[in-house]
Structures are given as C-alpha cells and as structure tokens.
Amino acid sequence: MNNFVYYNPTKIIFGKDTQKNVGDEVKKYGKKVLLHYGGGSIKKSGLYDQVIKSLKDNDLEIFELGGVVPNPLLSLINEGIKMCQDNDIDFILAVGGGSVIDSAKAIGGGVKYNGDVWDFYAKGLTCTDSLPVGTILTLPATGTEMNFRSVITKDDTLEKRGASFPNPVFSILNAELCATLPKNQVANGLVDMLAHVFERYFTNTKNVELTDYQMEAVMKSIIELGPYVYDNPADYDKYAQIMWAGTVAHNYSLCVGRETDWATHQIEHELSGMDSSIAHGEGLAVLFPNWMKYVYKHDVDRFVQLAVRVFNVEEDFFDKEKTALKGIDALINFYKRLNMPLTLRDLNINEDKIDELALLATRNNTITQGNFVKLNTDDIKNILLLSR
Amino acid sequence: MNNFVYYNPTKIIFGKDTQKNVGDEVKKYGKKVLLHYGGGSIKKSGLYDQVIKSLKDNDLEIFELGGVVPNPLLSLINEGIKMCQDNDIDFILAVGGGSVIDSAKAIGGGVKYNGDVWDFYAKGLTCTDSLPVGTILTLPATGTEMNFRSVITKDDTLEKRGASFPNPVFSILNAELCATLPKNQVANGLVDMLAHVFERYFTNTKNVELTDYQMEAVMKSIIELGPYVYDNPADYDKYAQIMWAGTVAHNYSLCVGRETDWATHQIEHELSGMDSSIAHGEGLAVLFPNWMKYVYKHDVDRFVQLAVRVFNVEEDFFDKEKTALKGIDALINFYKRLNMPLTLRDLNINEDKIDELALLATRNNTITQGNFVKLNTDDIKNILLLSR
User: Fold this and answer.
1) Fold assignment, B183-386
2) How many cross-chain Cβ pairs, A to B, lie less than 8 Å apart?
3) Which of A14, A216, B91, B346 has an alpha carbon within 20 to 30 A of A361's alpha carbon?
C-alpha cells in the first residue's frame, strides 16, 4: 500500500426533488450565477424551469450559457470566461452531464487565471484557484461531479486533454432526472463508470486487499443492476444506486494507496477524438476487452480474481488462464446486453487508421501509456488489431 | 434508498513518515497550537519529539495539554477550553486515539461557544463553529479522525454522551505508529471498527445492494486481515489497510441512503459507563452476538447474507436460520481469536446489574434503542440475559 493524500470536499445532495432547492445552496457562494448547460433536453424535461425558479426565489441574478456539446469545446469555455469577467459573475452552476460539468470547471478556473486556460490542459497542470462551481447531474457516467478532473477538446486541433481543478463545491444528484434518458446514453454511462473502476483495479501495488474488495463491490453493483436500469431507467431506486456507483467509481476513494493504469482511457481519447460521433463509452466497450486479452498474462491471478468475484465465473483451479478468459468473455456479454459496439468496425473505424491511432496515443512514439503494463506504439497497435 | 447529504472535508494524509511534516499542515490554519494528548505513550515512542520538532520548525507556538483518559472527561475539556481562551490559541492538534480526538473536538467547539460545552452532549446537538482541529491517529478504532462525532463523559454523573462537531480539517494516519500497540488495544480497535459497520448493515431500508456490498468489502477485510494484524502489529502493509478500514467504517460513506441501528452501541455505553475499566471494544464483543441472536428472526435473509458473504458460511438453502446462526457463531469465533471477553461474567459484571443497565439504556423506560428492531427495556434486559 502506497502513501496517499485524500481530500474530497464536494457536498453531495442526493435524492428525489433535491434540484428544486438548488438556489438555497448557490446563495451560500454567490449572487450572480452563470447557468451552464448543453442542448435543449433540460428545457424539454422541465428541469430548466425548476432551476430558474429556485434561483429567482433566492434573488440570484442569472446569466446563461448553453450549447455545451459532448467533448466540450475550448471556444465555448472562452466565451464563458469572458461572460463571467465582463459581468462579475461569482458562481457557475452546471446543469447536465459530464461535458457540461467539465466545461464549467474550465470556465471557473479560466476566470481566475491570467492566461489561456488551455495551458492547464496542454501541460496536464493543476489549477488551484477557481470560481466556485456547483452541479446538477443529469447523466451518471463520468464521475466529474465529485472529483477534480476536467477533459475538454481544442476546436482547431481536436486535441482532447485533461487537467485538474478544484472540486465542485456541491453536486445535486437525483435519479428521477435520469428516467427519460435515451437507452444508448444509459449504456454509455454504465460502460464509463465500470471502466473507471477497471483503470484502478489493474495495479502492480501489493497489499491492496481492502481496495480490491471495495472496487469489486462497485463493479458487482454496476454489473447486476446495470442491465435492469438499462431496461427500466424510470426505476428510481435502482438508478439511484447506479448514479451513486458512478460517483464512487471516480471520486478517488477506491484507488487510495495504489498505482492506477489509464492506458485504455488514453487510447479511447484518440478514438473519439478522431471521430466525434463516437461516444466515450462506445470506444471503451470496444477497447477494454482487447486491452485485457493483450495484458492478462502479466498477472493472471488478478484476472482470475476479477472473473470469480465480479463475474461469478466458476474457477478452474488447474487452468487459471481459462478462468481469466471466461471473465473477459463475461464482460463482453455484459456489453452485448447493453447493445454496445464491440469492434472498430462497429464504430466505422477502418483498419487503416490503426497506425495513426497508435502513434497519436503515444505522441508519435515518444511516451508509453499505462502502468499495469506499459504500452508502447506497437503494443497499442496490437490492441487495436485485436479490436478490429 | 433514502435521500441523503454527504459532506466530508477532512484531508487525509496517509502513510509512512507523514507525521514528521505535521507542522506544514498546522501552519495553514494557525500560529498558536494546543497539543493535546493522553498518557506517556507518545513520549516513549518518540512521536512526541517528532511532532514538537515539526511544529517548532514551522515557527508555531506550542501549548500542551496531556492526560486524556479513555472515555475522555469533561473536566479536562473545560481546562483545555480555558487554556485556548486565555492564550488566544487558534489550532488544536490531537495526537492519540479516539479519546484524545473526541476531547479535542469538544475543546474546539467549546472555545467558540458561549456556554457549557456539555450542552451539546446533554441534548445531542450539533456544534457548527469550532477552532480547527487536526489529528495524528495512533490507534485505529473509532473513526473519529474522519467524522463529526465526539463522545465524552461527565465526571460527576459518569454520563457518557455523543454530540456532533465540525470534522477535523486534517488527519494524519501512519500505521508505523501502531507497531508497538498492546495486543488488547489492537483487538479492541478491530472489534470497534467492525461494529461500526454492523450498526449500518442492519437496516430496514430497501434497495441498498450497493452499500451492502461496500460494507461487506470492509467487513471481509477486517475479518481476514484482523487476526494477522493482531499477531503482527508491526506489519505495516497489513495494519495500514486495517487503519484505513477503521476510517472508512465510520466516515459515513457506507451508510448513505439507509437507516442505521446503533442500539448495541447505546447499550455498550451504559456498560463501560458503569465500569470504566471495560473497554468499548470489550463491551461490544460481549453484546453484539447476543443482540444478533435476539433480533435475527426480524430479517433472516439479511443474516444469511452476512453469514454467506462475509463469514464464508456454506448456505443451507432449506434452513436459513441455521445458516444465519452459523454466521453469528463465526463472529464469536473471530472475537475468540482476538482473546476478547464473550460474557458479562468475563467483564466482571454481575447478573444483578442487568435491570439497572436496561433502565439506563432506555433512560428509565422512556425511550427505545435501535431502528432495525426497536428495543424497549425488556428487550434490552433479554439481550443482557443472553450475554451472561
């Protein structure tokens, strides 16, 4: 077990109707609010009206910036920064999914930074000063509602990069808001949150029995409740648990004291960066089983543990590899159950893009990805070939 | 799943040698520090010298108040409050186990309160304003290092009560400091942290599959690693996991969205309140199996789940009660392995005290205890009779 620092001051307000009192929370931090959101779905669902009412009931002055797209763009962030600076806005309320929240974090940090906010992303730096950001989460997936990460895309180069910012000061989570989510968004969210656990589970750090068990608890919940929620997103009590699982999966409580991996996320960033019609969850569903098949011999016992404890595979004590591979097959079946793509072909990515993707993922062969197994350009190419 | 608010802003600094930089953290909050501790063990171990050095290296002015006893006393807390007020102390550093930290929380709240700090305990109120408190934990058990609770005892009446205070601003956890703990303290800590999970696990709230799994993860870790740590407290990597399990068990992350019980803790408070030579863990080891035997029929399935998932009991699908009782037997065996007392007789509590204890636990038959099953005076008497 490694030394660690854990600090997570986001206040979570969880449950039915909680979004209706958002103004009570916002007024603790500011008077002029930038309401930041995506497309029109929050207007159609009535959430927008509820938020506006609560903000007005608390005498808050409202500025609006909608239009956040999946893979949120630097150009809109810069627009938001200017709006905040021109109007002395002192609070940002993000209402939406992970893209809206990541965009809000960038705006909050950019307002306080004397320079181009992309600097933080270009160099993977940590921004320590920000306008306070609060969130109302509408799509459980990325975990950004209770962590310090933000991933955005630069419009001109389509580079997709991450940086660190202060956590949201509060996040409101109400699974009632998920009842009308399109099925593919539910599925992408499930794949993403499960992947956040995988990236932490595969480690070379020893003496991590406790966090192994804790991660298996979250993975089992996602795998057991996920398909039901996919079929029945309006079942509050089940989706509420999935919503919380998504937050816990990526609030950094599960990986304390252990090295984490993140190679698959890095490769996926290049995939959905190359074609913005590919959802992050779709790319992960294609890549993760093939990453696993490529690296499992590095620590077969860990893959056996995953298979037995999480996927209820009957262990073959005389053939560990067989057990490990059955676990990976069970993961593929989980993705199939959610109608996820399973190959690059399913994503309309042609084989001739593989070399380019592998080079992008290693910054032209200058870096490796991952920690569990360090992957060079050839390794990533091989994983992509397995993913055809 | 119930609505909930979760907010836990304690910064955890975890790992080897971390106590040596405590001054770097303290100076973020204050200049004049009350160093609060118990008996002489931190002086014998060298920890005291390390702390003093780091505080002095950071130009902090040090005031000292030692002498905290298990079941910390209001009289010493009042002395601490006066010291802080007389000397404009602006930070409290608690170095020790749960008693020292609970005492420090009370001092911190009392300094800012215009009245008797016991008011919060007498009425079970929440104190929202406090001097900042930081901690260096030397005995993993109570979880107070990352929560808002404090339990103290009033000297004259021996009443033992709890209240709520702001969380510690930071807590330093280094399992190297546990290497020389006496065996009985290691064991009491293990029993206490396991009990903190039990109090949350037994619930009537439905749709709690995720938090069930999360609690089982922590319980399995304590049960599997605990006996080894009892035998080998100097094994850093194993004790570090137990230390973190003790924190997670009681940092309120495991019980989000579910009703909790706490009857056994309440009864135990009367037991160790009656005889201060009884450690909290000892009382819990005597009471918990008998509480379980008394209430298990209320929800046999939940006890079967505990037996099968946590204690690896082979399920008898045709005799659930048998399975449930095997789980309780496994718990008793765990306590035996740690050389814990198992009966009131082992605690030198005579049978003729049972009526008095049952009345104390229900404030003279005016309240019930617990939520999983509500216990009146007769119920508690019956549990104590089972515990003879």
Assistant:
1) Dehydroquinate synthase-like, alpha domain (1.20.1090)
2) 122
3) A216
